[in-house]
Amino acid sequence: MAIVKTLSRALVVPLLLLLGACGDEPAPTPAATGSVPPAASVPPSAPGAPVGDPAARAAEVVARLSDEDLAGQVLMPYAYGSSATAVDPDNAKANQGLAGVDTPAEMITKYRLGGLILVGFTVDDPTSKTNPTTNVENPKQVRELTAGLQQAAAGLPATAPLMIGMDQEYGVVTRVADGVTMLPSAMAFGAAREPALTEAAWHAAGEELAAMGITVDFAPVADTLNTGGGGVIGSRSFGSDARVNAGQVAAAVRGLQSAGVAATLKHFPGHGHTTADSHSELPLIGQSRRTWETQDMPPFRSGIEAGAGLVMSGHLNLASVDKGVPATFSHKIMTDVLRGQLKFTGVAVTDAMNMAPAKKWPAGEAAVRALNAGNDMLLMPPDIGAARDGILDGLKTGSLKRERLTEAVTRILTLKFTTALTPQPDLTVVGSAAHEKAVAAADAAAVTILRGRCAGPLTTGPVSVTAPASREVARTNLIKALQAAGVPVQTAGGTVIHLTGYGDERVDLNDRAAITVMMDSPGLLAAATSPTLIATYSSSRLSMEALAAVIAGKAAAPGRSPIAVGKLPRTACAA
Predict the structure, then answer these.
(1) Keywords assigned by UniProt (predicted)?
(2) What is the pLDDT of residue 274?
(3) Cβ 387 vs Cβ 90: under 8 Å
(4) Active site residues
């Protein structure tokens, strides 16, 4: 197990020490209780490897940092290029436009950055609007990239490891897919309803991320959906039951952090009961305060109690608390509720600052507003130089108090020095047999039959597998898995098994299919006419193998849909 400490002590120590560094300036009030996130893995050669207590080390560093160093520590942009120091002309030009430098390493040095997020663009990714490039390819490349980034950070005055983050939620939001053990979507874990399986699978994921040099995963999604699962979050959520989600979120946090990667709860105060997409507009959370506390708060509370290292603020309008103000910029939400009511003492990180609601203000003003609200780390500012300069100007004018900035940097450094305590695993853990076994158990527990028989083979004789063209990889994997399970497969003329997935609509169904399978949020199954309806919530190879075992009659389908699907039962196979 990774080290877990109470963050109240971790913050009290450096903040008391800062009294001597800041003259008569009052120290910021430390949060009351909470946990330091368990350690995340960075290379043993990473800069600033802590010798003693991370909190004391953070205090020592913060006390000697200049305003420019402090401003850099709260910035976490993205960069172009799959190497820290060698990029092609197109990526160099893009970095020049973003930060006035050629390479990611130069960006770290110029702005004295505290972190960097690795990004990936794919057409089907619901977060693709804010990811204009891809700098992750495979585990070996990512490990080399992160090592180069850490080497650049070694030369900064902070002598602290770089915080390297990534949105590795799995399911429809997956940055590195090649060569890793692919977990199913969060909704699959919600269907399995077994937190122990969730924790084991996320521990496997954490070890693989740590081996690649990732110190922070922007996961799990703690949003609770409405009953029918509508809205933009979909299968990224564990489901529509806040109590069940709370157990799943805590399990995912424990799994990730026991492997040495800090977990992030998102999107606070909750994106599941909204219909708008915060990438392009400000979604409304319209529940009363009491209803919000019942439907949206529990998973965040449980994740905090499990010791999550970070909470991500959403660009969301929680009207019952601070009407019209995006949560990212709301002191009432990010300080009064998150710090006061929920007692969170870790790092508060904004959602991407290049999303539309955050671009209401110029980058410098937005940076100061987000920090004053209670955020510590600013993710993906649209103009890095302007964000940095806005922070420095805020210090000069008094619109941003230095103690608020030092409080933020103290939290960030405490997290980074804590995560640096865990040695980096070897890349051989990535895709290992042990990890596949752990994840396969969760996939098998998730398979849900919403209509059809539950015992024995679900079809006899040869089968033919159909799917929209975009599902060819999953179709091929299912064919191989069916053949391995002893089910004869032919190109045409067999009993039709039809696959559908993320983004598919009624037109993508096959009315001739005997079995229709939904590999994402299962709502589309309400419109399917097949006598047998199955949800896997995932299109990964391991999910297709679990599906094949059910179709062949070699395994049961123990899952239960975490959302309502029309008039269908949550499962046709109730015990």
Answers:
(1) Glycosidase, Hydrolase, Signal
(2) 84
(3) no
(4) 279, 351
